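Human: If only I could read backbone structure tokens as easily as an amino acid sequence. Take your time, and here it is.
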Amino acid sequence: MSELKKCKQVVLNFYNELEKTDSAHIQHVFDSFVSDDYVWKGMHPFYELVGSRKVVETFWTPLVNSFTHLQRRMDVFMAGRNEIDSGQSAWVCSMGHFMGLLDKPWLGIPATRKMSFLRYAEFHRVVDCKIQETALFIDILGVMNQSGVYPLPEQTGVNIINPRPLSNNALMFRDQCEESSNKTMRLISKMCDELVSSGLASSKAELANTWHPHMIWWGPTGIGSTYTFDRYEIQHQGPFASGLKDIQFNGHVARIAEGEFGAWFGWPNLTMTPTGGFLGLPGSNQRVDMRVVDIYRREGDKLAENWVFIDLLYFLAQQGLDPLKRLQEISPFKARRIPSN
């Protein structure tokens, strides 16, 4: 068994045990699969946590207690050697949705007693058959939207539950062709270099170097998703470029590729100054960070699909705006009654 396949099996076993357990026994699962020096990176309001007990108490137990019958519905599962450290570390990436019945309030978001989907992307660094580091990106704004308490103006794209890749081959439980993986890595690295050199505002001609003209950009709630070059420019790249200035690229923590898929995340990827308009917000002189995940599907020599996660609640919090805190302070939401049937 290859080293990457061993890493995948560790993560799959971890997921399977989490799926089978209840909130009272989550810690036992973590004790079995993560290292003693475990580090966890989470989105606002969780941030960085050290040690599995802190992670279980702060994130996992409240999540499982709020979402009855929580299940992980994976759309992408892949692994690779990290391009950023010249292949010294191995990372496993999973993407999809957590789904459950939102029977109890979560982070102040009111319960609906209906199905609720929490979009996620998760990266695990595996060392000696133990998970040593995790970065978990989740779309909390998406849950707020499903619960009827969405806090931002209308999105420039469309808010939908993002589907799995069109090719239906992203659950890579077996090792993939090394040549295909290398081709994907070269393509996403070329795209990244061109995007950074253009100041994150590529022209249509520059997009055509690496992107399929019918590209699909599956964006986070708050921005939304968009389809084709033209609509991507109008519904995301244009508002992004006009509402943010002096964008600085900080690099990635991990960048991997396997088969036709690639993925990366940064902590943070970008630093910028809001000039006004992005997400419907006023401008300021405050320098703010963006933590971003990108997951890509290559089709031939072009990138065809891109799933994007941005810690937008952290982006807002740096500007003095905290929708979760405000939600908890508004008494009508606290007192909201949900029918028992």
